[in-house]
Specification:
Shape: globular
Structural class: alpha+beta
Largest sheet: 4 strands, mixed
Distance between the termini: 80 Å
Number of domains: 1
Order of helices and strands: HEEEEEEHEEHEHHEHEEEEE
Strand content: 15-25%
Radius of gyration: 24 Å
Number of strands: 15
Number of helices: 6
Length: about 270
Amino acid sequence: MKSWINFHNITYLFFFLILVVTFSCKKDNSITPNETGIMSDIDGNVYKTVKIGNQWWMAENLKVKRYRNGDTIQFVGLNGYNLDSSKWNNINSGAYCIIDNLDSTSKNFNGKEFGFLYNGFTIIDSRIIAPAGWHIPTDAEWKTLEMFLGMSDIEANKTNWRGKTEGNKLKLQSGWSDLPENNSNYLESEQYYIYGSNESGFSALGGGCCMYNGTWSDPQTFASGFWWTSSFIDNNIIYRYLDYHKPYVFRYYALKTYGFNIRCVKD
């Protein structure tokens, strides 16, 4: 009887063993999940945190009602759907407001989705709004974050839109843009929704902003997000802005009468 073992069979067996060894020993190149944690503020709110590079960031927007020393931050409520702009415009100290806060059925009631919008005066208040062990990031700390995500040093130091896909890496993978099709500022021909990859774990979501005159931004929630830094240019505060249809990160400066979100970074 002819043996089943011949040259061809041995050759096939040899290559099969090579493939098994190669794939079984192949290095795992999957992305290591970001290290995460939690922290809390003086009001007992608990926030998710994430380590990005060598920095620990809040992975949610701040929604604290008191400074670190226990003093209350002034709250400006709504007049119907809109903010009480006459009150907001006459404040020259720390204050906050809450967009989409009509009643308990509202998507951002008590800041549950977007957190609070704080004016710039809270940034400079000596009573400190950031929870103990944390602080409002400087412009340089934001640049460190952006450059870790791939932005060049030259780009990071520019103003306006910068980078390539760093904004995408900061944004949640869903939940951006509920704009009506007839929105005058974002024509249908321009709309190309760029949802985030959230590779960083920063989990940014568009919570809109309060304008210097006490009106809501246009577009509002799910389409734009603004975050304060603690750094100044002249008498204005530097901020960051993410947009629902841009993968970049916007850097500019604003009056202290604007209302933006806050993310803190660990000391």
